[in-house]
Specification:
The complex is a heterodimer. Chain A is of the alpha+beta class. In chain A, 19% of the residues lie in helices and 31% in strands. In chain A, a hairpin with a 2-residue loop joins β18 and β19. In chain B, the strands form two sheets. Chain B has a nine-stranded mixed β-sheet. A two-stranded antiparallel ribbon of chain B has the order 5-6. In chain B, α2 links the parallel β2 and β3. Classes of the chains: A alpha+beta, B alpha/beta. Chains A and B meet through β10 and β12 of A and α4, α5 and β5 of B.
Chain lengths: 501, 392
């Protein structure tokens, strides 16, 4: 359907605006989760996010952790009361919630597309298995009609207050979605709106040339193997390959398959002239492999201003031509920290270790299911296309979960997430890679007070913890998918070290 | 390389104007430059019996010989590796005239590398047959590392990391060159000095290289005339003696992509040249009053000071500080404006400037310039010269 603004539409939009604004400020009834927080759901969530913190899954380890027992990952705050999980099931779902009245008005006016754009969560008290979560939603704002890359539509913002079965506040959520009219995006070419890559043919990269002296290397790349020449007599590794061992002059060689791990030795970022076969910013790095040889390769998934000589890298692949695969390198997925980062180890300005996340179809679908999000755009490609998207998209709870996991990998098991503010940009579609980068933007030592750190209040009250603020971006091939900030409560350095000793 | 110290000399220099669009063919530029070099020396061009070229020269010696009416050539050679071969053409010529292989040898470079062919566009195509030289580009070109500036950028980042050098340190080279060019009517950038702030504001070409770190493609030609000691008498110019000339290639040498050595912040091939020049000439860094250092990209000038022993490894940024490489400093460099300021003629214009310093005719004359160091392409198989006012 092709939408055009006409005089009639303008009148209709004006009436719609009035109806929408009349809903602002309305508060819904309290919705109670139909099922308590439970271990299986927590474990499914941790599996989907590759979350490794034992405080969420391991009874014994959790007992010794900062919460004294198993807690739900903070980023699950809003999933226990997702529409299909509330008491009474789907029957009670839309009846008395102001945002659904707004969504209905918008659906009826053709604004059927929906994407989540912001999720600002604050955690006051960690949820534990057996807790029954209740939520009360207030429709706090509806924007005027806006044109975005996705289309013409409205931002709808709700504020949700969460409590447990004792009526204690556990956290809050400010949530914003964009409801848009499919097909009204600022599209390039004839493709679907907004998010479609330009599919005009582009020239190929310069084709590598090889002869029988190096063919085995390029054949290896086709099989996603990074082969390094090894002279069988001396064991010497040489790259780029030669004909003879430069010391023994033996011409007997085979190869070893490299682990694909290495570090950045040097780099340059060509900007001018731009070659049409390449995407910019373009980073060409010199990678020193674990095996000791160097190779020139593109460094992907990290912007030039986040590059650091010495940063750990891992191989990934690019099918550059019908019959050529090139190695590429990206920041290595960080190992989960053993122990917990302490305040004494953190300085404002510190970069967080960049981390690539493969956006597989499984991750998108399983992430949606593990967060009880049954919106069809997260698992049904046809439905996604009908709503103006080229493919399914990752839901915001999965994005939040992945950010939380990455922050936890960096800060360790004893760090406590206090808030997570997220803005969504371009979608995460299957097949892409999202790389998390970030830095420490603030640090407050020993001043965490009250119930802010939830179940670690014992330490908080004695001033043994501090809080750091980090800002982050998760970018994929289309741009920034997720950006925002988070606060983490960390143990103080010196005292923590003394206690451990 | 063995070269006969102070037995041969550059006795004629000639050049066309330097521009972005010569309006003439490279063959005409070559012919004009060669005629000018002969006229400068006061030599009948038909007496030239040798030609010494370096690769990327498209005006072959037989074509120039036809234009000059040269009846016979009995020495002609072509040194490989482009800009690294500039000083080597003089080395070849010196050996030829000293051994008697020839009496008068012309060395030249002429091109329209701006108006005809953008030299800086690098290697974007490929040859049909994958011979070793084609294969060598397979390790870089598919990743978008295509141009000389990009190749240089990889070295520059590592040098900065290892020694704490900054973009401003690179900028000081450009500022010095442009200051000298501003005073040189033959320079493309005559009357146009730059400030460090302008350098810092210039756009990135290949991070960390900025526009003003890069020489600019030029149209033009330069020729040099070399002869032996017994023939300098009767010519019009004071000879610029070849005190030493040498070539250099070091272990695991690549053409501007020697990325696989243990350390990539030095220029060991330049070290090979330096060692020979000092040994052969009997001179050292303290004997040099001014130097014409190959400056296609500023970051590759810094390690030249280190390889020649003007300062310790990693300390070039301190050596060049406070105007030390500008007129009035301890070692004025590229007094013609260099390739950043005068023109990018693959270093042949630097040799001609070295000759002018020996003659005392530079527009930025260094007092008491009796020994001048000249280098060729950095990061490639290279060569160098020491020119001297004093013969054997």
């Amino acid at each position: 359907m092709l939408w055009r603004m006409t005089g009639d539409d303008a009148v209709a939009d004006s009436a719609l605006d009035a109806s929408l604004q009349a809903l602002v400020g309305r508060q819904g009834t309290v919705q109670v989760a139909g099922d308590p927080v439970d271990g299986p759901a927590i474990r499914a969530w941790c599996d989907a996010m590759s979350e490794g913190n034992p405080s969420f899954t391991d009874e014994a380890a959790a007992a010794a952790g900062p919460h004294g027992g198993i807690v739900a990952p903070p980023a699950t705050l809003n999933m226990w009361t997702m529409p299909d999980r509330i008491e009474g099931g789907t029957a009670g779902r839309d009846t008395d919630q102001p945002q659904h009245a707004a969504y209905q008005l918008l659906d009826d006016a053709g604004f059927t597309g929906v994407v989540a754009t912001n999720s600002d969560q604050a955690y006051e008290r960690h949820l534990r298995p057996g807790d029954v979560v209740s939520a009360q939603t207030t429709l706090s704002g509806i924007s005027p009609q806006k044109q975005t890359a996705l289309g013409i539509g409205y931002f709808v913002t709700t504020e949700v207050a969460y409590a447990n079965q004792q009526g204690e506040a556990v956290g809050s959520l400010s949530f914003r979605v964009f409801k848009f009219r499919p097909g009204t995006g600022r599209s390039r070419g004839d493709g679907p709106a907004g998010t479609t890559p330009d599919d005009s043919p582009r020239p190929e990269r310069p084709r590598p040339r090889w002869n029988q002296d190096q063919a085995w290397h390029w054949e290896g790349l086709r099989q996603r193997e990074l082969r390094i020449q090894r002279f069988t007599g001396s064991g010497r590794l040489v790259h780029p390959p030669v004909v003879a061992d430069p010391v023994t002059h033996s011409m007997d060689y085979d190869w070893v398959v490299a682990t694909g791990r290495g570090f950045l030795y040097s780099w340059t970022a060509p900007e001018h002239p731009k070659a049409p076969a390449f995407d910019y910013p373009l980073v060409v790095g010199l990678v020193e492999l674990e095996e000791g040889v160097r190779m020139v390769s593109n460094i992907v998934g990290v912007p030039p201003d986040q590059l650091e000589i010495g940063m750990p890298l891992e191989v990934c692949w690019l099918d550059s031509h019908d019959d050529v695969t090139l190695h590429q390198f990206r920041p290595a997925r960080i190992e989960r920290r053993e122990g917990t980062l302490t305040m004494g180890e953190v300085t404002v300005g510190d970069p967080l270790p960049p981390c690539p996340i493969d956006v597989t179809r499984d991750l998108v679908v399983l992430g949606a299911l593990a967060t009880f999000d049954q919106q069809d755009v997260h698992h049904d490609r046809d439905a996604a296309r009908a709503k103006g998207l080229p493919d399914i998209i990752m839901n915001i709870l999965t994005s939040s979960g992945l950010v939380a996991r990455w922050l936890g990998d960096w800060a360790g098991d004893g760090a406590v997430l206090r808030s997570l503010r997220i803005g969504l940009g371009v979608p995460n579609h299957p097949g892409d890679v999202m790389t998390m980068t970030g830095s420490v933007t603030g640090s407050v030592a020993g001043s965490v007070t009250g119930s802010a750190a939830g179940s670690v209040t014992g330490s908080v009250e004695t001033g043994e913890v501090g809080a750091v603020t980090v800002s982050f971006v998760g970018a994929n091939s289309l741009g920034s998918h997720v950006h925002g900030s988070a606060e983490l409560v960390l143990p103080e350095g010196r005292r923590g070290a003394g206690e451990n000793a | 390389m063995w070269t006969p110290a102070r037995q041969t000399a550059i006795v004629g220099i000639g050049a066309t104007e330097f521009s972005k669009d010569s309006g003439r063919t490279p063959m005409q530029l070559a012919t004009e430059a060669c005629l000018a070099a002969c006229a400068d020396a006061g030599l009948d061009p038909t007496l030239v019996d040798g030609m010494s070229l370096f690769s990327m020269e498209r005006n072959h010696e037989i074509e120039v010989a036809r234009n000059l009416g040269i009846p016979r050539l009995q020495f002609f050679s072509m040194v490989n590796h482009g800009g690294g071969g500039g000083c080597a053409t003089v080395a070849m010529a010196a050996m030829a005239v000293h051994t008697g292989a020839a009496d008068y040898v012309l060395a030249y470079r002429a091109f329209n590398e701006r108006s005809w062919h953008r030299f800086g566009s690098g290697v974007q195509g490929h040859h049909a047959s994958p011979e070793a030289n084609d294969v060598s580009f397979s390790w870089t070109s598919p990743f978008g590392l295509l141009t000389p500036a990009q190749w240089a950028g990889m070295f520059a980042t590592r040098y900065m990391h290892q020694y704490g050098a900054t973009s401003e340190d690179f900028g000081r080279i450009a500022v010095a060159d442009r200051r000298h060019a501003a005073n040189n009517p033959a320079a493309f950038f005559h009357g146009r000095p730059i400030t460090l702030e302008e350098h810092q504001a210039s756009r990135i070409i290949s991070d960390p290289l900025r526009l003003l770190d890069c020489c600019q493609e030029s149209d033009g030609g330069v020729a040099l005339l070399v002869t032996s000691a017994e023939r300098v008498q009767g010519l019009d110019q004071e000879p610029a003696w070849v005190a030493a000339a040498a070539q250099g290639v070091a272990a695991d040498q690549w053409m501007m992509r020697s990325y696989y050595r243990d350390d990539i912040t030095g220029l060991p091939e330049m070290g090979v040249v330096a060692e020979q020049l000092w040994e052969s000439s009997g001179l050292g860094p303290s004997d040099i009053q001014t130097a014409m250092l190959y400056d296609h990209f500023t970051p590759l000038v810094l390690p030249q000071f280190e390889e020649f022993g003007f300062c310790a490894t990693g300390e070039a940024r301190d050596f060049i500080a406070d105007g030390n490489i500008e007129m009035g400093g301890g070692l004025p460099v590229n007094t013609n404006g260099g390739q950043l300021g005068e023109a990018y003629i693959h270093g042949m214009n630097g040799i001609a400037e070295g000759v002018r310093q020996i003659r005392g005719t530079s527009v930025n004359q260094v007092d008491g310039a009796t020994n001048v160091l000249v280098t060729s392409g950095s990061g490639v198989p290279t060569s160098g010269l020491v020119l001297s006012a004093e013969g054997a």
